[in-house]
């Protein structure tokens, strides 16, 4: 008993046996590939189909033989000729001495022409994805499996890739599919060879166990719910919710980040995007979103398929999604490389500004984020509107270091500013360095250092730094306010502050410029520390203090104090 | 390889010439053409014929009409066009020249 399929060639209906259909189908696909996709080839194919229909017609005898079997198909193909025969008569393959499998003309990528990426139901651990990939790349499945396990160990990305591929890759169900998967397709000899092999061994087993496995693989849901039952379902539900929430979160982050790029500023901002311009940032953000969201979406969809037994995702859609995923990962890598290229060269510009000599210099910081009504300097006007909350982070940079150096006691004090920035070329870097605006303001004895620096023209973040070196004549007295402490390098503000008697209330430190640089003017505190140490040590000892006369003992043990009172019973 | 290539090229040209000659005798159906060619041992498989017919038709040397068939689908009957006839007469001349050339060359070899 054989199953038959009804086909329609040129408006004539034929009943054809399943295996015969497979053979015919792969033959037609072969021919289609051979002739390409031009208007002319359409006509040729029509003629061939017509002729095949006619030949079938000749073979059918009403009442006696109404079904086309494999024998008929093979004879028809024999008569019509295989692709290799066509090639021979057209003389196309002859320039290449590789043989019949290779076709020229419309298909230059000969090696993979016939290969299709499909899951292999005959050689599978879970879904046949690995063996399918192995067939596609022409290697042993074990290597793909090892690679997958490695990916799984490296952050679990292998699982997502596997799930996506499971959804995307169709299963090779028919013999023609399997041949396409193995890339044996191009000519009929191969097909016949495979068919002969298969009819011997494979068909019996396939109809039995193979079929059952194949069916199991078709719906992964059956497998999962069958094995794990209720627990599996619960896990699936949790994962579904997890994936759903992740998708939602990603979407929110994406939308708000986008709003930032388009001028609707808000606190949700992914800092690394700052190194990209708006246009690049929008694309990079989209890539990033897709790269993370697509696996979650695939997981989400897969789980809904299991839980609600919904239909498989349209294969074009899933293939598109998979392609988009690959593209976005490539895109992200590209932007990472492109952005890092822009940090290759460093340029530094030095500017010296003299300051008025004073006996004593007060160094303090001016927090430019705070509006000061009495301020008259030019910096203020630049902030007029943007000076409001998070806005500033796009315009303000705080990589500022202050160093102190000594010069001859008779020399004029001055400040040297070093502006540095990075770029793809040295020239770009120096252009960026030129865009840094930073300068201290002297108000008599006080030197005000703004807390942040600005970039002209709203430049991109390119590791801009400002190094300030203050050259003071030896003997000059310096008072450092606590506000400026975090900008000071080389000397320790806190060590000096510890020398003061009430260090916690001390809001400034005094220093003197010597020939070895700035020295703390406050002499260290005497002794106090030692006493403290002794106390600490004595505390650590467990001790029992006896207070005679009143029968009370105070016991100190392991930081517990126990007071024992013994009342005399009399 | 080169021998095979030359063989193919020779067959190819002659095949087109023969097809044109066969069709020039009158309206004919593709599978009848095949029968003739098979008889002449020029053609092994049918599939080769269709691209040739289509090419000749697209070059204006042939035309066809659909005709109902008693058994099966309607058939394409080919006939030669005036242009085809002109080409054929030119080919006749060429063929004679070729035969002369080949015979002369072969004689020279046999001597």
TrEMBL record, chain A:
Annotated ranges, domain PspC-related transmembrane region: 212-343
Subcellular localization, as worded in the UniProt entry: Cell membrane
Domain PspC-related ToastRack: start-end pairs: 388-524
Record-linked InterPro entries: Phageshock_PspC_N, PspC, PspC-rel_TM, PspC-rel_ToastRack
Record flagged with keyword Metal-binding: no
Topology in membrane: Single-pass membrane protein
Transmembrane spans: 150-172, 235-262, 282-304, 316-335
Span of domain Phage shock protein PspC N-terminal: 115-171
Annotated spans, Disordered: 521-540
Domain of life: Bacteria
Record keywords, A-Z: Cell membrane, Membrane, Transmembrane, Transmembrane helix
Annotated PANTHER family: PHAGE SHOCK PROTEIN C
Protein name listed in UniProt: PspC domain-containing protein
Organism expressing this protein natively: Sphingobacterium chuzhouense
UniProtKB/TrEMBL annotation, chain B:
One Pfam short name: PadR
Highest taxon of the lineage: Bacteria
Domain Transcription regulator PadR N-terminal as annotated: residue spans: 19-89
InterPro entries from the UniProt entry: Metal_resp_DNA-bind_regulator, Tscrpt_reg_PadR_N, WH-like_DNA-bd_sf, WH_DNA-bd_sf
PANTHER family, sorted: PADR-FAMILY TRANSCRIPTIONAL REGULATOR, TRANSCRIPTIONAL REGULATOR RV3488
Protein name, UniProt field: PadR family transcriptional regulator
Lineage summary: Bacteria, Pseudomonadati, Bacteroidota, Sphingobacteriia, Sphingobacteriales
